[in-house]
Amino acid sequence: xxxxxxxxxxxxxxxxxxxxxxxxxxxxxxxxxxxxxxxxxxxxxxxxxxxxxxxxxxxxxxxxxxxxxxxxxxxxxxxxxxxxxxxxxxxxxxxxxxxxxxxxxxxxxxxxxxxxxxxxxxxxxxxxxxxxxxxxxxxxxxxxxxxxxxxxxxxxxxxxxxxxxxxxxxxxxxxxxxxxxxxxxxxxxxxxxxxxxxxxxxxxxxxxxxxxxxxxxxxxxxxxxxxxxxxxxxxxxxxxxxxxxxxxxxxxxxxxxxxxxxxxxxxxxxxxxxxxxxxxxxxxxxxxxxxxxxxxxxxxxxxxxxxxxxxxxxxxxxxxxxxxxxxxxxxxxxxxxxxxxxxxx
Length: 345
Ligand SMILES: [Zn+2]
Prior knowledge:
Blueprint: E1 15-18, E2 29-34, E3 43-46, E4 52-54, H1 60-69, H2 78-81, H3 88-109, E5 116-120, H4 126-133, E6 137-142, H5 145-153, E7 160-162, E8 179-184, H6 196-206, E9 207-223, E10 240-241, H7 244-253, E11 257-268, E12 271-279, H8 302-335, E13 338-339, E14 343-344
Parallel strand pairs: 5-6, 5-8, 6-7, 8-9
Antiparallel strand pairs: 1-2, 2-3, 3-4, 4-10, 9-12, 11-12, 13-14
Helix pairs in contact: 3-4
Zinc ion is lined by residues 22, 24-25, 27, 46, 48-49, 51.
């Protein structure tokens, strides 16, 4: 994990730099909020749209090497699974999310029957199987081979294809080239690719007018419990550190109509998760394509984001200690016949 720390946001010590351009708004002006380390590039915030991103970004070959040689945060990654399938426990968690969360969100907006669906991160194919059973024609893309092998060999889903994150925007298409629904609920993707803008532009291009995008992302300003110290903990895996507002700006800038965008009360991991439902405008409705003119009226200011990152970084040990005390109290109370908070069993 990177050993750098967020530069104090309370003392205006942020250093201004010029990058090659923000992926979201193309502005070259940014401030450095965390210096780089041997494990990760410096972290910057775009002064125009407030996107938090690593600068310089990794090259495509460097990103591929990182996922092959170092990345172990996915049960299907080479470092975790090797030549085997991902562990049963992780697969069952994926199935629970697919059955109890993802499919319910999708069916609130569109019936899968007869629809062409593209899944970006099919994982081991839990939701793919449900969508097929509901009558959809599905294509899936998965960057980790152990997951894709399980989907193909155990679940019998030959329509799941391997594609590294560095080329995720080059996903395959059904024969007539149009899809009705793109699902990115299985696991967050935008933070992992080299250009969320390119990926979203391609998704927009291949969706039929009126087609839906369902997308999950993590909000780095809202870590859950004690699991993460700060946005820096992801190292090179997350080239982009997204928030509720910058994710919404990406979706709107691509030309989508944003139907839902909120922190989902039923989905969290190391961070709170953002649930996005968006629609490509129907034929005849205004569809501007990608517009770098993003609305930044809502959401925290650059200084507030910087202060929040610094606060999360510097209060992590306190939060961790609080969780440990709570767990210990629960154990002691349990032995005495009480539950936590304090009530008799
Ligand atoms: Zn920007």
